[in-house]
């Protein structure tokens, strides 16, 4: 019901989207919030870790719209500053920086699916059996879509598979493999 109301309102507000937003912007700023949980039994992940996530993101578009048909789109580089607040099995923050490459599929104009992947670093004092260090590496892949709300604003929904480990620089070196679901707002310039 909430999603149908959002789409109804956004359809009414989305005016002239073919010449605005993601199609012509040079950059974007975003803020997203969501939930993440590890998958015990996936790889060497043993502990269920649950997080409440807030991510600040800056994106720089590397190209104008290229390609044709369904795969027409734009390349984008993303820098994210994630704050993942662990709520279980203890409460502690995870703070990091991530660099991602993204492809935005622009053939549909008002709804823009995208895929992304990349990595970075994360710092935490989380006490679980998998992590042997406080500073760890992270990599992730994901997908999502943006829906135009107004000329230079969109609402974003995304999923990402997120991996944290210390790259065998300390023992133990077990991973935290998790899924994260996020909702956010993007502002295009």
Radius of gyration, in angstroms, nearest whole number: 18 Å
CATH arch. level architecture: Beta Barrel
Instruction: Supply the number of structural domains.
Output: 1
**What is the CATH fold-level name?**
Porin
| Sheet having the most strands | 8 strands, antiparallel, barrel
CATH class: Mainly Beta
Strand order of the largest sheet: 1-2-3-4-5-6-7-8
Q: Please state the average pLDDT score.
A: 89
Structural class: mainly beta
Q: Can you count the helices?
A: 1
Q: Helicity, in percent?
A: under 10%
Pattern of helices and strands: HEEEEEEEE
How many strand units? 8
Tell me what portion of residues adopts beta-strand conformation.
over 45%
Q: Gap between N and C termini, in Å?
A: 31 Å
- As residue ranges, the low-confidence spans are 5-19
Outline: elongated
Q: What features would you describe in this structure?
A:
It contains 1 helix and 8 strands; from the N terminus they run H-E-E-E-E-E-E-E-E. It has one helix at 2-13, and strands spanning 27-38, 50-61, 73-88, 92-105, 111-124, 135-150, 153-165, 176-188. Strands 1-2-3-4-5-6-7-8 form an 8-stranded antiparallel beta barrel.
């Amino acid at each position: 019901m909430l999603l149908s109301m959002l789409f109804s309102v956004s359809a009414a507000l989305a005016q002239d989207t073919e010449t605005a937003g993601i199609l012509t912007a040079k950059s974007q700023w975003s803020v997203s919030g969501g939930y993440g949980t590890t998958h015990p039994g996936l790889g060497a992940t043993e502990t269920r870790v649950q997080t409440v996530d807030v991510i600040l993101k800056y994106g720089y578009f590397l190209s104008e719209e290229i390609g044709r048909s369904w795969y027409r789109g734009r390349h984008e580089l993303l820098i994210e500053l994630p704050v993942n607040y662990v709520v279980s099995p203890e409460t502690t923050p995870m703070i990091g920086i991530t660099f991602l490459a993204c492809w935005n599929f622009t053939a549909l104009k008002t709804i823009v699916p995208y895929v992304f992947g990349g990595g970075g670093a994360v710092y935490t004092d989380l006490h679980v059996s998998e992590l042997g260090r406080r500073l760890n590496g992270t990599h992730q892949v994901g997908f999502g879509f943006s829906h135009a709300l107004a000329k230079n604003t969109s609402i974003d929904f995304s999923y990402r598979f997120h991996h944290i480990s210390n790259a065998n620089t300390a023992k133990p070196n077990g991973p935290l493999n998790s899924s994260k679901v996020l909702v956010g707002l993007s502002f295009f310039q």
